[in-house]
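Write out the 3D structure for:
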Amino acid sequence: MAFDGITIAAVVKEMKEFLTGGRIYKIAQPENDELLLTIKTADGGQKRLLISAGASLPLIYLTQGNKPSPMTAPGFCMLLRKHLQNGRITDITQPGLERIIHFHIEHLNEMGDLCRKRLIVEIMGKHSNIIFVNEEDMIIDSIKHISGLISSVREVLPGRTYFIPHTQEKRNPLTEDYPSFVSAITSKSMPIYKAIYSLYTGISPVMAHEIGCRAKIDGDVSTAFFNSSPNGKQALNDLYKAFFYMMEQVKKGLFHPVIIYESGSPVEFAPFPLTMYKEEQQKSVDSISTLLEQYYAEKNSITRIRQKSVDLRKIVQTALERNIKKYDLQLRQMKDTEKKEQYRIYGELLNTYGYEVSPGAKSMEALNYYTNEMITIPLNPLLSPSENAKKYFDKYGKYKRTFEALSSLTAQVKEEIDHLESIQNALDIALLEDDLVQIKEELISCGYIRRKGGNKKVKFSSKPFHYISRDGYHIYVGKNNYQNDELTFKFASGNDWWFHAKGLPGSHVVVKSEGNELPDSTFEDAAKLAAYYSKAKGQEKIEIDYAEKKNVKKPSGSKPGFVVYYTNYSMMIDSDISALTRVEN
């Protein structure tokens, strides 16, 4: 979700509660576009406030963490220390529902006179900034200098007057009444959700969809519906009620932050629960600052793992492409060998009926006694029937030898492709750096990577995913092939149940039965996990094989993660695991 005006309102409410009356104790600038303020609160405690004007991820929230600062403080940081060190925060405000926060600060100057200044934080994507102004709205300095060459709308430079650029002329949703709302919405010919977020300040597309959802209206329907449908007037009335109620929540500060998860991964956040998502997908968080820190930490963790796995992915992808090309070539060669039986029959028929062939004949008609049909056999007129037969037997022998060799080679290459795809799947589900260590070790042991520094024993701290089924049974999911083998053949006992996506790269899933007969819902939960942690994740229906662990075997000398089973059941299932609880190891 975008860091919209409603989220800013929740942040402002929280900061007003904790920081108003507090004194700025420390000012640090860990990054070029980031401030970290330590504030002694009015109740004698201490809070840290992180403010980032980064173009890719502008943020502001209270945090417990600290960050190292450069040895020499940047000029903007030194200026703030000069003016604001020990300054008192008298108020924190948000103009309308803009993505802007004003910190009102009192401090004593060198002469001991009381001065008032404002630190303005603008959370506006690539245009984000932190601006320091005096009582007359004159800019003293900013963390980013914006000249007229960069922006024709507004210069942000020392000595310039500060103002909020109203480039889109959006309306203030906090002061909108019913007639104005109706007039504004019906004047636009576009999807309803788009009309809401394009007309009103501080409302993101997600919150615009939520307003439609609360009104039980499809946000993707055109606003023309309100004028063309018999129910249009009532629908428009319902839309305003949902809009008005949300704005009342904002004005009253009725925030209950939630993080929305899909299949175990964070996908959205909001200052209050969203009716457009299932209740079980939403995790309540104590404060908006905790939400922002947790949400972006989880998202950054996934991004960081993706970046760290780039080299491993490249190695796997290169090997996979090479083996797929080899496999395709071998299959084409195998197709050519399909003629071998035809050549054998030609040879046999020539030996049987060759005496009937006239000298110099280019073909021979003969009865194929295998099918009881007449066939035409091409002949080399320069060769005798027996010599033609020998030529066909030689071709048969050549294709037979090729077929036998290729049958073994294609099986090996297909096994290699399946193995590489399973490693690729393991890279997709890796969440921690320790997960990558185990995958790298597998690539080393299989010869895809050369071990550096001699033979070193690698210790693994990565553990399988651990879930609790809706009926309270423990379910374990292997993150890679080593863990799959460990789960299936060392951790699971004979009467535990084993699950895997049929014919696809994916994780081994083991349910600890504890000697009980599992309820149907637990079978479904385990099957959903097998579907989710497979290459088919996201498909509506995925076939899952499951069997008692005692029926799952590992052939001698087979690749990590490879098993065979002959006594099993199957079910079709989706990959939605939002109802399942993952246990943190």
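The chain is about 40% helix and 20% strand.
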